[in-house]
Design brief:
This protein is mainly beta and 495 residues long. It folds into two domains: 4-124, Immunoglobulin-like (Sandwich), CATH 2.60.40; 173-494, Methylamine Dehydrogenase, Chain H. The protein is built from no helices and 42 strands. The strands form ten sheets. Strands 1, 2, 4, 5, 8, 9 and 10 form a seven-stranded mixed β-sheet that branches. A four-stranded antiparallel β-sheet has the order 11-42-41-40, with no helix packed on it. The chain is globular and about 65 Å long. The two termini are 32 Å apart. The relative contact order is 0.11.
Length: 495
């Protein structure tokens, strides 16, 4: 089992404190294997000083001590301030019902000592405390600022071309893979000229040509979880965990960096017809920026982090989910129109059908449908585990979505489950992509890409990449499928 915990730094932390330093930890990926991501820890975080880690589950404590084989190893991620934390023990949450979890990190072996770092309360496996919906109010509109543009010289890197030139009937051809220096959980975006853009945990945005050659990379201030969005004029927008939104031209020159938001940006930007860019942040708000990088508004604060990505309706309404269990609707001026509750945190990003229906997954294991006024139309039968994949809508209205229970699901527009795929080898955080012929592609945390027919039959499973696939696939005009992997590479598959 895996816990992917994201540690956020406390501000104004002194070098010496008797009280524990608070670390806000978000339990996002908890059904895979035993790995955690520690992002931007405070300066007092020194892995070589850790003596024990205690995970408090309900009334019991699980202790990982430096003197035992269960002690986690901590590895610095190259070119970042982040760490990977690997446990040799399994998932400590062995119950099906939700329980409270708290993480404590100690620099001392003294059993009576206070922890050096302590997390907020977490609820496992997939429930979160319900937060009342905030009341509607007008957004604040600060004076815009225009960051000074900077440039970055492009660099080149050749892709890795696998030796095999043929494939079996049940395995797609790996056309190429191109390495970055960090895990890729960002999803690739394909420009009109075929250029592929993708973010990496090494803090950089990359551009590759359709043959896998690296055209350039540009550095932000922290890891990039966010997926890039491409404007009609070719400008690439992407969020960074350094709390800012960035704009780059197709040659890799930085056009602007936004004023910092109050939290890391793991939401992916969405671009309105008038060029306005919307993105959510870990400071619990939705932001709007104009194409020059000026902040137009910041929404009312939701009850928790926003890592869902916004979806924009034809009338300009913006829908986005929050960890506070709620789906929100804002008008283009930032006014809150309504919020609608699900049973748990929303990590999934909403999808809008042609008739205006909004679909979104929830950590309560179900897919929801709401009308444009916020009325709940239906809640699907529960999948086996949380839904953190984002739904994708086919031309005939069928909704496809992955579940952490390792399967892909299909629902009709009335909420009836059409089928559940055979289980992949890992949780599905990746969001499905639909080809012109109806084939559905989706990544799995078993390290492979899968293809399914519209009837739910598995066509193939790719060769395993070197890491879990959180990234969602993107399909080029020629049918090539691009997807990132936790092994740090972007892959190109062709069937």
């Amino acid at each position: 089992m895996r816990f992917l915990w994201w540690f956020k730094d406390s501000t104004n932390v002194q070098a010496k404190q008797s009280a524990p330093i608070n670390l806000n930890i978000s339990v996002i990926n908890k059904f895979i294997d035993n790995k955690c991501l520690i992002t931007r820890p405070p300066g007092t975080f020194e892995p070589n000083k850790i003596k024990r880690i205690v995970i408090k589950i309900g009334s019991r404590s699980i202790i990982y001590n430096v003197r035992t084989n269960n002690y986690p190893s901590i590895t610095k991620i190259k070119n970042t301030s982040n760490y990977m934390l690997f446990f040799k023990g399994g998932n400590p949450n062995n119950t099906a019902s939700p329980v409270v979890c708290k993480v404590q990190i100690y620099y001392s072996t003294n059993q009576s000592s206070k922890p050096t770092f302590i997390s907020n309360n977490l609820i496992l496996p997939s429930s979160y405390t319900t937060t009342p919906a905030p009341t509607t109010r007008s957004p604040t509109t600060p004076a815009p600022t225009t960051p000074a543009p900077t440039t970055r010289s492009p660099t080149t890197r050749s892709p890795t071309t696998p030796a095999p030139t043929t494939r079996s009937p049940t395995t797609p051809l790996v056309v190429w893979s191109a390495a970055t220096n960090g895990a890729i959980q960002s999803s690739p975006a394909i420009a009109a000229d075929g250029t592929i853009y993708v973010g990496s945990f090494d803090n950089s945005l990359y551009a590759f040509d359709p043959s896998g050659n690296q055209l350039w990379s540009v550095v932000t201030g922290d890891s990039i979880f966010s997926s890039p969005a491409i404007a009609a004029n070719g400008t690439i927008y992407v969020g960074s965990d350094d709390r800012s939104l960035y704009a780059f031209d197709p040659s890799g020159n930085r056009l602007w960096k936004s004023v910092a938001t109050g939290g890391g940006i793991r939401s992916s930007p969405a671009i309105a017809a008038n060029g306005t860019i919307y993105v959510g942040t870990n400071d619990r708000s939705l932001y709007a920026f104009d194409p020059s990088g000026n902040r137009l508004w910041k929404s009312v604060v939701t009850g928790d982090w926003i890592q869902s990505s916004p979806a924009i309706a034809a009338n300009g309404t913006i829908y986005i989910g929050s960890f506070d269990n709620l789906l929100y609707a804002f008008d283009p001026s930032g006014n809150l129109l309504w919020s609608a509750a699900t049973g748990a945190a929303i990590v999934s990003s909403p999808a809008i059908a042609a008739n205006g229906t909004i679909y979104v997954g929830s950590n309560d294991r179900s897919l929801y449908a709401f009308d444009p006024s916020g009325n709940r139309l239906w809640k699907s039968v529960a999948t086996g585990v949380a839904i953190q994949s984002s739904p994708t809508i086919a031309a005939n209205g069928t909704i496809y979505v992955g579940s952490n229970d390792r399967s892909l699901y299909a629902f009709d527009p009335s909420g009836n489950r059409l089928w559940k795929s055979v289980a992949t080898g890992g949780a599905i955080f990746s969001s499905p992509a639909i080809a012109a012929n109806g084939t559905i592609y989706v990544g799995s945390n078993d390290r492979s890409l899968y293809a399914f027919t519209p009837s739910g039959n598995q066509l193939w499973k790719s060769v395993a990449t070197g890491g879990a696939i959180f990234s969602s696939p993107a399909i080029a005009a020629n049918g090539t499928i691009y997807v990132g992997s936790d092994d740090g590479s972007l892959y190109a598959f062709h069937w």
